[in-house]
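Form 7-S
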Amino acid sequence: MKKSIFTVAMAFAAGLFVSCTTAAPKVNLDGASKADSLAYAIGVAQTQGLQDYLVGRMGVDTAYMGKFVDGVLAGTEADAKKSAYYAGTEIGQQVVNQIIPGVTDEIFAGKEGELNKKNFTSAFLAGVTGKGMKMTPAEAQEKTMSLMTAIRENNDSTADLTAQIDTFSYAMGLAQTQGLKNFIMYRMGVDTTYMSDFVKGLKAGIKAGDNAKQTAFNAGIQIGQQISQQMIPGISHEVFGNSDELISKDFFLAGFISGVTGKGLLMHPMESQQVFVTLMEELKNERFEQEFGENKAQGVAFLDSIAATEGVVKTESGLCYKVITAGKGAVPTNTDKVKVHYRGTLIDGSEFDSSYSRNEPTTFRANQVIAGWTEALTMMPVGSKWMLYIPQELAYGSRDMGTIKPFSTLVFEVELLEIEK
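Output:
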């Protein structure tokens, strides 16, 4: 099963989280559809690794997990206006908690001294709004570079140094806003129609500083928006294909919040991983049966017709083959590396791959290919050329391989050139 956005590990530890202040949606798995059960299981599974991620990567104090959950619920419901505001609070807190301390450490490198936070944040806000700038962003970048060395090398706290730090702080704050608009548009999904809301959020985030409750809430907002904007659509696409149908947000959130709080779990977190893998495959197979079931029926009819053709041999597995050229060399084992030329088509004759077209034989181990190939290769003497008629269950089955749709019977012309030692 290919990796999807929902397989990112995020961690569960029952008993380590306090209860949330906002209740999870109430759901019941008794009689629930496979899709709803899948949504719940994935929600629980997403909380595996969550504590370490929140503490180590997002700076959340687990004493405020209730605020985190509040943020998750708010984030999943956020419209464009609220999303702009929340993006602003996130960046505002980054300015106070990460950017300013990071710049301070880089400039002073253990020596006494600190940036002028007021100048930095004033310039940052000016750069975001485009109003009241004391220099252009390009000038700010140049000023930042020119002052950086001087401040690093100046070890005394003279008035000149103070003035340099004040100017540097302003220039650095302004320089940090270069490219910010594109970042918040394309990386954070902010609709610039609501830039004023972004600025309000930015001011609120800066003012909140290292407020632990606000940090927890903002972390919840981020993950809540990821749930609604990325995870749920991504999972839904895998389950329902190109349909507009979505998995249940209520069931997902019920599982996620139960996993976070350790309360009201309807399945064990370790079980949830296997449940969602199993249900995902079942749902995808059911969809493929509806969409591509005709391929299976056409393939059976085609193979029945081929099997009745003179010179065609049908094996116990259902593989059909016809010898075009009988080779006299050794027969590979399934672990041998073989060199072959081949051409592959669907039963309607459309070609999907050919080493002949590339003028270059292909080399691989006999058991590294689809089952129909492996069976044929371990019966073919070197020098043989066979036509293979491979039923879907010995090919790609329900997998969608692009040109090769689920349940497709495949036809191959295969020439075994040599066994490589």
